[in-house]
Specification:
Length: 59
């Protein structure tokens, strides 16, 4: 929702989740996002990098 954007809530939630997974011994986190998703900026700030590209052709 627009009124909650820019308050750092997503960053706090993602950071808490990442910390929890680190504590549980996970060595990698993967996520999927559609091109154009505004959250991609957040993911990059948190250290995620683009690893694969999926393409499609609408017929």
């Amino acid at each position: 929702m627009e009124e909650y954007r820019g308050n750092g809530i997503s960053k706090m939630l993602m950071s808490a989740g990442i910390d929890h997974l680190k504590q549980d011994g996970y060595s990698e986190i993967r996520l999927s996002a559609f091109a154009g998703n505004q959250a991609i900026k957040l993911y990059k700030k948190l250290g995620f990098s683009i690893r694969t590209v999926t393409m499609n052709l609408q017929l």
